[in-house]
Amino acid sequence: MPIENNSADDLQLIVPNLHRRYSGVTATNRMVAPKLALMFRAAWLGSHAPDGIARLGFGDLPKLWRRRTPLIWHARRNDEMIAGVLLRALGWPLKLVFTSAAQRHHKSLTRWLIRRMDAIIATSALSASFLKRDSTVVMHGVDTISYAPPADRAAAFAQSGLPGRYAIGCFGRVRAQKGSDVFVEAMCRLLPRYPDFTAVIVGAVVPEQQGFANGLKKQIEAAGLQSRIIITGEIEIEEVQRWYQRLTIYAFTSRNEGFGLTLIEAMSSGAALVASRAGAAEFVVEDGVTGVLTPPGDADALVAALEPLMRDPASAAAMGIRARARVLEKFSLEAEANAIAEVYRGLSISSPNA
Known about the structure:
This protein has helices spanning 5-10, 24-37, 78-89, 108-115, 125-129, 153-158, 180-190, 210-222, 237-246, 261-268, 281-284, 299-311, 313-330, 333-346; strands at residues 13-17, 42-46, 54-56, 71-75, 94-100, 119-122, 136-137, 166-171, 197-202, 229-231, 247-252, 272-276, 292-294. It is of the alpha/beta class. The strands form 2 sheets. The protein has a 7-stranded parallel β-sheet with strand order 3-2-1-4-5-6-7, sandwiched between helices. The protein has a 6-stranded parallel β-sheet with strand order 10-9-8-11-12-13, with helices on both faces. Helix 2 packs across helix 14. The longest helix is centred in the last third of the chain and has 18 residues, at 313-330. The mean pLDDT is 93.
């Protein structure tokens, strides 16, 4: 619903989401925005709006022009930074905030936009090192209620109808950047030795990656594992959450990531974790305690890290319990929202209850 004029006058925070395709950036934004809306008068602009936050239509933007009190425009992509810079130049009283997850040197346009932000948030210390200006590190959080261990993991897996007793998963779009091929290679080598396990890749196959996905399917067929390595395709978020609850082990196989939200989703769900050193893995995972770290793109290392957990599912379950406890302590949505709120307050945007 469009906001009313009086609501526009009171608004303190705009959360723009200007991409129609659902992505990891969208997912992280959707989770934390309702928490911020409990602290600030906030509205979501764009697609994929979550529950728990007001909607701002593009037709509502003129109501905010040349108002006296400033409000936050919190961008997470270049196009959202561009929109914020243009709106401010035309008279909208915006304080511009940008969250960066990139772990690489930025292109010239991005560097130019970053210099025009009033505050920068980085999702890890490594991301911050590429920004060339002061920033605040705020790692992502996860909804520990939606991503929670099941009451009975064996029963949760049995509901899938898949063979075996245990599941090992790898989530994300099926492509080389996510290491889907590394996971399939490891499973083709391990599953014949561990008949109680079934592997699942939960993620969409986008048209431009169809050839890559077809190659994986041929590899799976050649190994005779069609019934034990499942690619779900795109599914609803509620079903994704159910799949996390079915897992005994989660394999994070990305070659590169901004953060890697599936890390903390899997940990919050109580799965044992084997993670490539990509994204925020080295900051999130306590190697050998709440997970095992491996080199990106290395199928041999992945096999070596997964096999002890597959051999001893009880030790995997114990690791999952420790992983859940770490998320509750360090990576809750409340912790993320509170840290972002402190950045806003540094720009003289105070929450009503502050």
